[in-house]
Amino acid sequence: MTAIPAGRNARVGIAVAAVAALGFSVSGCGASGDDSADPNGKITITVNDMPAKTDPVNRKIFLQDVAAFEKANPKIHVVPHEGQMDPQTFSTKLAGGQLENAYYVYLTDPAGIIAKHQAADITDALKDYPQAQQVKPELRKVFQDEAGRTYGVTEGNYSMGLVYNRTLFKKAGLDPDKPPTTWDEVRTDAKKIAALGKGITGYGDYSKSNTGGWHFTAEMYSRGGDVAKQRSDGTWKADFDNVTGRAVLQQLHDMRWTDDSMGQRQLLEWADLLQMMGSGKLGMYLATSDNIPTIAAQYKGDPKEYGFGAIPEGKGTLAGGGGFMFSPKNSPAQTRAALAWIMFKYENPDRITMGQKRAAAHKQPVGLPEPNIWTGAAQKTKAAADKKYANQPVANYKPFSDAIGAIPLRLEPPQAQKIYAVLDTAMAKVLTEKNADIDKLLGDASKQVDALLAAQ
């Protein structure tokens, strides 16, 4: 959910030798008369994604990487900006020449940006970075057009799974190494956990502040459904007023009112389930793996108590994350220089081990199954580094890690936040009204979403 981004670990970049080699070609471009370079051939680039001063550890790491990059590339000067791409000001900044040379986007953004020609084509420049081919194909595809041309690179990713309390599983007679893999099993296990009493909730779900619609979408994807579907003419239409949508809401209704496994407290939003898990009062909920260190840091939970399993059914999982695209107003030299920085900072396996060691030394989470953008040899490098420097209970995440490779990754729908706001109502009604009319809720929501999609 883009309104609640997954936590992002300290990230690392490319081997100095490779960047130094590219730095020569970049400086050559600038020296040959390109107006992006000063008289000495030095190119200045602006980039965003620098952590705020309120995140001093990751800001320090970011600035250390800027210094290391500039040392390896003396012909490139990096001017970092805080924040990321703001859809509300993006077009204005682009038109006014204020957009950074390399700018951060969520994975839901590239298709629209590419269609509007608001990013530079980096296909040819990317050939200097063979390690980019080790990024998961589905993540690379997000930044490509229909002709296969590339306009950006991936920084990180997350996907939804099942966070659960291993201690409560044991007390309920369940195997903490085998979390439920179907929604029927979720329902059965939730009843057993709720039967422990003492205010314990078996399964929790959201229904407020767009989080209800976010989880409805994740649950639709898990069952192989959609929330919005693109038609042959390129337009979009709601696609949840169907048997799959009814199954999602009916199960939640039955767990709430028939099984009494979801507790009486409803209209929950993002922090509520983390707090419940941290207090030992919740058995399971859908989340991303970075919720676990957040529960530990903010809600005094013990990371060793929590497991992370694959999303039930596994026919699809809501995935997100982000990456970087490049201003179409860049000179060729600026684009190459900006790409050199992005690859240095975010996308190279040669410094994964150093990065995990550094993150562990700064007490940042190491050992979570995601972000993990890699395949092949790079994935093996990450796994080895995670094992060596882990400060998280890696074995507890094995059910997720073993399954995620076979589960299709699905991005958020267009107009995601507005759609989520509409779907909050359906989630809230089935969890607060015993006689909620599921068919009417889905029908009304579908009409509203169709209107949103038609107006985009």
From TrEMBL:
<dbReference type="Pfam" id="PF01547">
    <property type="entry name" value="SBP_bac_1"/>
</dbReference>
<feature type="signal peptide">
    <location>
        <begin position="1"/>
        <end position="31"/>
    </location>
</feature>
<protein>
    <submittedName>
        <fullName>Extracellular solute-binding protein</fullName>
    </submittedName>
</protein>
<dbReference type="InterPro" id="IPR050490">
    <property type="entry name" value="Bact_solute-bd_prot1"/>
</dbReference>
<keyword id="KW-0732">Signal</keyword>
<dbReference type="InterPro" id="IPR006059">
    <property type="entry name" value="SBP"/>
</dbReference>
